[in-house]
Structure formats: C-alpha cells, structure tokens
Recover the amino acids of this structure.
C-alpha cells in the first residue's frame, strides 16, 4: 500500500486525507493539532504535528513517503513545493501559490519528479477539461464562469467565503489577465459584469477576476477568459467599497494610529462572510469551449453544480477542489500519469485515459461535469 | 446704526455678516483668522479674533453690541447662546445645537431677552411657514422634504456636503422622531424611502431623518414628518455601509491600535463629499400642509429651489440658511418682533407682518418660496 503524506489539514486538506485514507496509508501533517486530532480520532489517518516552513524537518519527514499532497496555504505553497521536489517525491499541489509554477520546471525535470500543480476545481478541472479538447480540436475561445456560494442569500452581501476571506478580497482587487485576439490584456477586477442563467439557481452575475494562470503560457488560444460568479447585487457593493476607498492600502491617520482601510474592511467583511459549520453552500461552474473540428464549428459546454454534503459535513468547495486533487493523486499512485517536470491540469487532460479516470473518480463521489456538444 | 456682532465666520456666518453689513455696523468674531481676513478685506465688516468658548471674554465683548447672531458650530451653540442671554442681548441663533432650546426659556424670560433660535432653512423656514398656517387653519398633517445637493451627480455618492460631513453622518445614524396619530414615534434614520418628482431636477429619494425638533413640543398636529432628499441611489449605499458595520462606534482591534469603524468611514467619505469652492449646488424643499379651513379641506404647498450664486460665489446653503437668519435679525433690529423667551421659527411665522417681511426679504435676494393652495 502506497504511503501518502498530506501537508496541511485545513478544510480541503482534511477532506482529501479522508478520501485517500480508504485506499492508501495516509499521514496528515499540520502545525495546528486540533484538526489533526479530529482526523486521528474518526479516520484511519496518522498525524504529525510539524511546522512545514521548517524545510530541514520537512525533508527528513518526506523521506518516509511515496507521494506528497501539498495542501498548505497559498503564501507558503511555492517554498513547500520546492522542498518536496528537492526531496525527489512525486506530488499533487493544491496550494494555489501566487508564484509562477514553471520556475520549478528545471528542478523537477532534474529530480525526475512529476509535480501536478493547481489541480482543484478552478484552477484545476477547468484547465483539465480545456486540455482534453485542446488536443482534439482547434479551440478559438475558452470561457469559464465559476463561483462558490451559500444557499441562503442573506443581505447585504449574499455571500459566504468557502475559503479564506482575505483571498477573496485579493481576488476582488488584483488585475485580471485575459487572452483577447491572441494578446494578453489586463482588466480591472470586477469589471465587465454580465448575467448568466443557471437551472435551479436562477440568475448569477459574472465579472472579471484573474484566473487563467498557467493557461496564458500553455495554450495557444486567441480568446480566453475566466469570470467569478456571485448573486446579483454582490459585486455592485464590492465595487462601491472599492470606489469609496475602503479597499485602499495606503494608511490613513486616525486618533489611535495609522491604519490602512483594507485592514478594517477585511475585519468587517469577515464577520459577514464567515461560512458557518454545516452551512449549506454549493459550487457552480460553466465552461464553454468553442472552435472547429473536422471543418465544422463546435461548441462544448460543461456544467457543474455540486452541493454541500450534509451526511459527511463536507463543503462543496472541499468536494470539488479536494476530489479533483485526490483523483490526480490516484493518477500518480496508479502510474496512470508520469511526466517529470511541472504539470498543470491542462497537460493531464490531454491524455485520454486520465480524462476518463478523473471524471469517473469524481462521478463516483457524486460530482458531475455535465457535457453538452453542439 | 445698530451694532451687530456675528459669532462664527464659517461659510454661513460669513454670508450673513456680509448681508447685514450693507445696513448695519457689523463685527465678525472667529477663532480662525483666515476667514476674518477675507471679510475685513472685501467688506465693510470689523473683525475680532476670539475663542468664543471663553465665556468671560465673550461676555465682555457682547457688552459693546446691540444684537447678536450666533453662528458657531452646533456642538458649542448651546453654551454660547446661554452666555448671550446672560449678557442680556437679543439674539438670532443658527448654530442648530442638539440640546433642547427650551431649557433656556426661563433664563431668557428673566433677562428679557428675545432669543430667536433655529432660524435657517430647515430647521427654520419650514417651521416658520407651518407656524403661519397653524394659526389660520386646523392643520392635520405636515410634511417637509428637504435637501442640499450638488448639481453634478458624481458616482458613487452623487452627494456633496454643504455643511460639515460629520453632521451628515450624524443625521444618517440618529433615530428620527415623528408625530403619527398624535403620538411621538421613532423610526431608524434612512428608513421609509420614497420617490418625489421635482421640476428641472427629476426624481429625488426622500428618507427619514430627525428634523422636527421644537415642532414636537410647540405644535398640536396629529401627523408631522420631515425627510431628507438625495439623488436616487445615495441612500442605498449609506444603508449598506451601515448594515455592513462601517458606521459602528465600537472599536475594533487592528495591528496599529483600536479604531472605531465610523472614524475611518468619516475620513473616507469626507474626501468624496467635500464641496469644492465654487462648485454648483442647490437647495430644494417641499412643504405640504394639510388641514381644514372654513369647513373645507385645504392643501398648502411651498416649493423652494434655490441655486448657488456664481456672481458672489455664495452657496445655496449659505443663501437659504443665512438670509433666513438675517431676515430674522432684521425683525429684531427693526422692532418688528419682540417676545422675551426662546422663540423657534414657528412662533414668529404666526405673526402676519413677520411672515410677509421674512418672505419679501428673501425674495429680494432671489429666494422664492412658491406657494400653491388647493
């Protein structure tokens, strides 16, 4: 039985460890003992309390395992992945670090390490599905609309953050990079809102956020965009806060000291955005791939609508991100995929067998990417 | 020639001093020398640099004048008025202090001082006009809609504060007191929005603010309300900030110290709300008085739409507030009104001669209260 170590026992990391524990010898590692205790108590998972930032100790630890799943927070993801590659271990990374993954390409090739990165839902499955069709047709246009939302639409925000709220604000402020007519262009976050209709949800509003990451380098497609989905009205409020200066990072002098408006805003929004334990939420994604195959125009659409699992108290964000990542981990464990170097999801989707395996793996867990072809 | 001292040389105080200087011997007093210099340079106005909070010095000063105009900021208005009354001087007060003016009633009577308070536009002319009709018919319903607005509707707020922005926020947070079916009720500020149409402006949105002040004591009318007018969309943004916690007064711990959200919010809003010198703005007010006279139903409406005067660079807020106040000052100077005690505008409006005088005085300055009777 292969030995897998999961670095990070947060919401998604824990869900992945649990999923893998039914077929592998799994150890979860975290600096926080509380989440480890829960895993040890209820599941067949070993745990180790360790600060992953200590790269010496981490290297020693990694020597004992066959495969690594990197599920640490984004800000420490890149360095952790580097340590894993240096240790010569094949890895799936879902830390979504901000650095360019290809900076580690040479190192991974040199070490003979297959590093699968960004294999969640978005980034992740959206890139993976595009990769599959990219190999089979001339793709001219790729659009991805994605959001994680609470089922209850509570004013004023109608929103709960299924991951760290500070990452949501970061998404609302960072410029969005797109491919338009073969050129990379940047647009302000939140710009170009449009309404889309979804069965059983109704109308959602999509707006620009920076989500194309590796695709801007790996795909030769004239037009690519990713937009984030929210309930109508949310984005108008965020845009207003931004316009009024509440997202400013420059400090302002107040009686008790200098503060940056975004620091206060983050604190206030977190109160509203905190996803409560057991709170019903869902993930919705629509991918539209347009192009030509055999001389005919082709439009391929995937629709995902995944919900919180009350039985196991697993959030939809954990399910869709985590079970994509564990599917990828199975590809490595079963030797279905091997390619020394950095492998974003679009590379793996190009492989027929991997495509079928990853979709079936998630179908078994009730996650359906509904395909329609025109 | 009567000697008048004007306490406070802010925007409105200066406009009043200038208006009075054509007919009286006027002295302006302020702690800030800059505004005094402008008055001294361009007008026939004497100036004295004094901290009005020093009641000993203020008393000494007042001894030299026949009449006093109190135009200091609201927070110091009550104490200043008390000093003026103690000095035995007849006074017009447009400081709009938050305390109950009638607390000074006995003192004013004892000193034989006629103190006219709250004689601006609103409070001021709205109370004055109601007073006139209150004496002549059975009034069942009084409604006043009033706002000071910039001509340019710049997003996100479409608003500039013609007076201190902190007073605007105070208006947006203080509970509103109303008379409904003969009982005083309180409603949250910003509540019960409604749209109203105005010639040459279009649609404005009215919402509850606390504006009835002395009327709740002096008038026996079953239904009275005052609402503030803004461009549609403004109030929704303010309500959102309030709901999201940006008007909270409890402190929140941040890296550099504890701050109250409202302190930061005020700073940020002031940047957007600052009325620039020479910026075009206007005052709009609609008063609807319903009741019975001679057994018939009667509806009396006054409409005011006053604009910034570019020729003299006088804001509409200064014109409508200030020239109401100087009209009242003329009533005292010309012995057209005398009633030892505290006199809110509704008392003075009851007098035929005063009613005609005050309206004509403002008409001479291009301020029209257009009356229609049904």
């Amino acid at each position: 039985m292969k030995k897998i170590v999961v670095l990070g026992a947060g919401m998604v990391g824990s869900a992945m460890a649990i999923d893998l524990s039914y077929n592998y010898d799994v150890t979860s590692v975290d600096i926080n003992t509380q989440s480890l205790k829960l895993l040890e108590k209820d599941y067949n998972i070993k745990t180790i309390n360790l600060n992953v930032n200590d790269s010496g100790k981490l290297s020693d630890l990694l020597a004992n395992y066959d495969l690594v799943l990197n599920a640490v927070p984004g800000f420490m993801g890149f360095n952790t992945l580097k340590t894993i590659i240096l240790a010569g271990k094949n890895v799936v990374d879902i830390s979504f670090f901000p650095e360019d993954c290809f900076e580690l390409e040479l190192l991974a090739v040199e070490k003979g390490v297959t590093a699968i990165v960004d294999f969640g839902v978005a980034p992740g499955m959206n890139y993976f599905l595009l990769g599959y069709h990219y190999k089979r047709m001339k793709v001219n246009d790729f659009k991805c609309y994605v959001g994680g939302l609470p089922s209850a639409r509570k004013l004023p925000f109608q929103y709960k953050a299924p991951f760290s709220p500070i990452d949501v604000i970061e998404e609302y402020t960072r410029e969005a990079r797109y491919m338009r007519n073969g050129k990379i262009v940047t647009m302000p976050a939140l710009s170009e809102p449009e309404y889309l209709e979804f069965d059983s949800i109704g109308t959602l509003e999509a707006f620009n956020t920076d989500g194309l990451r590796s695709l801007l380098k790996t795909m030769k497609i004239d037009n690519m965009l990713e937009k984030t989905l929210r309930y109508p009205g949310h984005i108008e409020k965020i845009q207003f806060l931004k316009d009024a200066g509440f997202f400013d990072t420059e400090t302002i002098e107040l009686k008790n000291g200098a503060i940056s408006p975004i620091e206060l805003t983050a604190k206030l929004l977190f109160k509203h955005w905190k996803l409560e334990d057991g709170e019903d939420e869902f993930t919705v994604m629509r991918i539209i791939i347009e192009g030509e195959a055999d001389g005919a125009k082709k439009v391929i659409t995937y629709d995902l609508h995944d919900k919180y699992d009350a039985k196991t108290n697993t959030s939809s964000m954990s399910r869709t991100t985590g079970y994509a990542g564990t599917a990828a981990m199975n590809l490595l464990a079963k030797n279905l995929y091997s390619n020394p170097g950095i492998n974003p999801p679009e590379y793996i989707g190009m492989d027929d067998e991997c495509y079928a395996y990853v979709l079936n793996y998630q179908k078994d867990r009730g996650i359906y990417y509904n395909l329609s072809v025109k």
Q: What stands out?
A: The two ends of chain B are 44 Å apart (CA to CA). The CA atoms of residues 176 and 187 of chain B lie 5 Å apart. The first helix of chain B runs from residue 11 to 21.
